[in-house]
Amino acid sequence: MLVSRRQQLVQLAKSGLRALIAVVLRLEAQVRELRRQLQELKDRLALNSRNSSQPPSSDGLAKPAPKSLRPRTGRRPGGQPGHPGHTLQPVEKPDHVKVHRLERCPCGQCRGVSLHGQPVLDYERRQVFDLPPMHLKVTEHRAEIKTCPLSGRAVTAAFPPGVQAPVQYGPHFRGFTLYFFNEQLLPFDRLRQTCLDLFGQPLSLGTLTQTNRRADQRLDPVEAAIQRALIQAPAVNVDESGVRVAGRLQWLHVACTAQLTFYGVHERRGVEAMDALGVLPHCRRWLVHDHWKPYFKYDALHALCNQHLLRELKFLAEEHHEVWAADLSQFLLDWKEDPLTAQGLDEAQFKRAHARYKRLLRQGRREHPRRRQGQGRTQQGKAANLLDRLEDYDLCVLAFLIDPAVPFTNNQGEQDIRMIKVKQKISGCFRTSEGARVFARIRSYLSTCRKQGHNLWDACYQLAIGQPFMPNAPAAGP
């Protein structure tokens, strides 16, 4: 009986110990999960526009102090020695000349003796640049009406091209509305008030809509030329962003270079939209983007935006004190500034750079091992996810070392898309899909004109008279 009782107590103790161990293990797992969640929340709070892809507007009032990713040069801010600068310069032939006559001597010793008969030795010149008084000039066209001596019918002279209605605006005024609505992004109500203040003539919505639609029709060959030039370009920056159209979310897509800009608005974000817009399916050279997966569906060479990667590496270096992240960031920045990069690396130089790149990734892998095959979709941290991307797309990251035509970042695409976002912030949304499409086409023309050195005021006038500038197609490269 005593042995049996002892065995029972031992069994009870063992079962209690197993239950206690199970509870401890369960609590330990909960603590690990809570720590992970706490770290994830801390990471979210630490994200800002400097160390992630968040826009500066998301920083709120507590904006981080500016801190550039560029290394210090030791130079003072502002214009550097040798910079030509820009200031108002006198012109050779002024529009008007006013001569201020010297009738009496101002020297103070001759008590104002008369200089009426003295010859003019020279002039001291000062020029004032100003605007003329603002008003609309009205030109009345009168077509003669006569009687044909043979048929006896009344016949009328032809009006000049473009003079079609009894009362209408001329091409300079239409160019004015195109410029301020599509380039300076004035919403209709403010543009209407501007026309009333400057010219005493309020602009109607119908007139502005008709002007934009007519410009849209005239830009058919210009848009086709921009698309052809982009397809032939050695490297094209691409990006996309949401826009509100008629109360719904649509997508603005941009394909651009330093000389060309194409915008398109579509209901979809992915491949369906990019196929419909007609540029990316035909590109066979480099596409520079931010690693959005649908871009990889196109049969082109792909280069990743290193600015995005630098922000992620900065976050890991500053918040998690990852040494490999700081070293890799410095590696990329060093090669960006290296003169060899602009010339193009030979095979041996690229192999050495690639080997150094892989060594830095191996340092990171010691702290964040790759998920083993068969583990399923186990959750990883930011560092492990970034390392996966850097390893799987290593040649896309280092594309700027492979081909000098590849830019280091996708900043060109982000800059070109930014002003359309400003338009949305000003006006709230586009009221119709047609209005969004027309604005995107006109903006493509204006952005391309600016990049190619055309005066935009003149570009809008040329568009208003039906003779828009045709873009120059850059050389396609070897």
What does this structure look like?
- With 478 residues, the chain is of the alpha/beta class.
- It has a domain at 306-370 and 380-402.
- It has 16 helices and 7 strands.
- The strands form 2 sheets. It has a 5-stranded mixed beta sheet with strand order 5-4-3-6-7, with helices on both faces. The chain has a two-stranded antiparallel ribbon with strand order 1-2.
- Strand 3 and strand 4 form a beta hairpin.
- It starts with a helix and ends in a 14-residue tail after the last helix.
- The model has no long low-confidence stretch (mean pLDDT 85).
Kindly list the characteristics that best describe this protein:
478 residues; alpha/beta; 8% strand
Give a concise summary.
The protein has 478 residues and is an alpha/beta fold. The chain is built from 16 helices and seven strands. It has a domain at 306-370 and 380-402.
Task: Output the helix-strand order.
Answer: HEEHHHHEEEHEEHHHHHHHHHH
Q: What is the average per-residue confidence, as pLDDT, rounded to a whole number?
A: 85
By DSSP, the count of extended strands is: 7
Structural class: alpha/beta
Rg computed from alpha carbons, rounded to a whole number of angstroms: 34 Å
- Assess the beta-strand content as a share of residues: 5-15%
Q: Strand order, biggest sheet?
A: 5-4-3-6-7
Give a short account of the largest sheet: 5 strands, mixed
Helix content percent band: 40-55%
Low-confidence sequence ranges: none
N- to C-terminal separation? 97 Å
Form type: elongated
Number of helices: 16
What's the structural blueprint in terms of helices and strands?
Layout: H1 2-46, E1 145-147, E2 154-156, H2 171-183, H3 188-199, H4 205-218, H5 220-232, E3 235-245, E4 248-256, E5 261-266, H6 271-277, E6 286-289, E7 301-304, H7 306-319, H8 323-337, H9 339-343, H10 347-367, H11 382-392, H12 394-397, H13 399-402, H14 411-427, H15 433-451, H16 456-464
Parallel strand pairs: 3-6, 6-7
Antiparallel strand pairs: 1-2, 3-4, 4-5
Helix pairs in contact: 2-16, 4-15, 7-8, 8-10, 10-11
